Amino acid sequence: MDSRLREAIERMRMNNRSSPLVHFPAFRMHEKMRKDVNDSVMGLLAGAGLASHLLQPMVKADVPLSKIFPHIVEIERFNLSISQASEILENSGSHVAGMALPYLLAMHEDYVRSCLGLLAREGKLTTKKANSTPASKMHATMERAATQDFPVDSLSQFHVLREMRNCLTHRGGIVDERLTEAANSLSRGAEAGWKKQTTYAPRRFKEGDPLTVGTGEVVMTLAVVKNLARCANRIIADALSVSTWVDVALEDIEEFGPGIPRNKDERLRKIQGYARHYYAAICIKQEDLEEGLARMGI
Known about the structure:
mainly alpha
């Protein structure tokens, strides 16, 4: 490849990475939920480690935990001994991670389906296709509809995580052939990124082995869904027309914002402010908003 062409492509990639995001409702919800899960999971793991550490001096005491902490409802309900509670806390990381991973992936898949719905609204694919595409194909469907691609490494990492989720929820936590195939298909870059977060190479998965997940896999999932969500955002930002984004913005302010003012004198001013705050990446003009209001019959 010509060096100048290579440099131009790299500049385009860098510009795409740094381009502003469109903060439409589904993206805002995805970002909030991702951050909430991150805080909750890390808080639970840190809390479990701290509680286990504090219980160590009392492990040999032959006293129910409810007698020491009588005001904590959960302790009384489960009637745990100190040694039982300590053991549960020490092994809680894999259980918390096993619940967080499916939740994070489901959250991301719901967001991508919202993006497919916007593309259907633009006429890039049918509504039936947007609603029925399975998780394994939704990113590829979005790529074809918008004629833009997701980063290959992040997408391949997502599919490994997706197959891990399937093994945890549908295979009794046993590695299957589909997971090993997905893991073995990772590029060197994707595998290096995986190893950096989890400390192991996913090629170690062997069909029939028990699958365990921990903090590393949760951190990996958080990173992958964040990257793919932002890439999806930039893809639809380019794929949708300004008029479609105006309609989305007006519906947004009605449903999630302060509403469209009925007072004509303040209507445009407030809508313009809302659009600048959440939809600056689209560069919506006053005449675009006026046309959008006319479509709404306002």
